[in-house]
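In response to reviewer comment 3 from the previous cycle, which asked for concrete evidence that the modeling workflow produces usable outputs, we include below a single protein chain processed end to end. The sequence was submitted unchanged, and the resulting structure tokens are shown without manual editing.
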Amino acid sequence: MTIQLEKNAFFKKYKIDQTAFQQASINWDALSSIYEDHLRNIPILEEISRTVADILREHPDVHTVRSRIKSPEHLLEKIIRKTIRKQETENGYQITLNNYKQEVPDLIGIRVLHLYKDQAFQIDHLIREMWELEETPTKYERKGDLRDKKLENDAESFGYKEHPAGYRSWHYLIKTQVKETENIAEIQVRTIFEEGWSEIDHQLRYPYELDNELLNNQLLVLNRIAGSADELVSSIRETKINLKALQEDKKEQDKLIEEFKQEIRGLSKNKEIQEGTIKSLEKKVAQLEEAQKKSYMKLSTGSAGLYLSSKDYEWLPNTDLYSLKDSMGSVTPKISYSNGIINTQVDKKSE
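The workflow returned the following structure tokens.
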């Protein structure tokens, strides 16, 4: 009787369809056994989580590492929903005490956040070197994304999935072992901007608002902003690196110009060289210095305007307007920034 009461309270709390639960032939007593087994294992899972997270934190490209152990109640909710969903295509599918750790591999969940998109490659190398993979990692993409050439040259290293909400993340299932017991942990690698969007998306939509079209469209715009921010950050970083290189080049050019000036001063003492020749050389040095100064100032201030190499948006030259390119097919988000105000609009495409 106690189990029945707990079952009813659980269904109410997590909005479980009792009819679908019964049709899937899910055994509540079996779920209770899984609940208790997972509860006993939590201290071991926490130890594994700390160990994996500490290793990841040591990498210089990692900004933040977050970890969690799936709560027993959320584990049961996921088992119920997954069983109901899978039975639509796999008759007789069940999750039991013997297989729940394999069927729900994210009992240990670890998120690795980084600042710049290209840092994911170095983090990928670390994960592959430190742990055995349970399966081929998955790279979630947004519709229209162009794959990095590094990944195109090694296509077997990832499985690719287009996410309907525009979610971008690299997912790994790794094998870990503590006290002779093998466990699986999920590692998700993404940028800070993608993490911010996914947290908001998860809180506002999951699991009960997935079909809310208005909410989905607004979160799609937010996803575009997050993706554009990633591209802009990469562009700013590249600009900084290029400017540093230009500064080094300028120092070298200044040194060469000074040496040229000294040679001209030495030539001016030679009476056999005409005065007009010396003045012509001095004029050319002055023109070279002026051209160098203008070029450097133009690049360092960005006065020429920018076109950022992004498939997501353009920064139109000499304006404060950002124009987003559509890659989703059915919805076109548009974002403009002017006078400190961000305007967003979602237009339906004509059929």
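Confidence is low (pLDDT under 50) at residues 303-344, 346-351. We consider this sufficient to address the reviewer's concern, and the full set will be provided in the supplementary archive.
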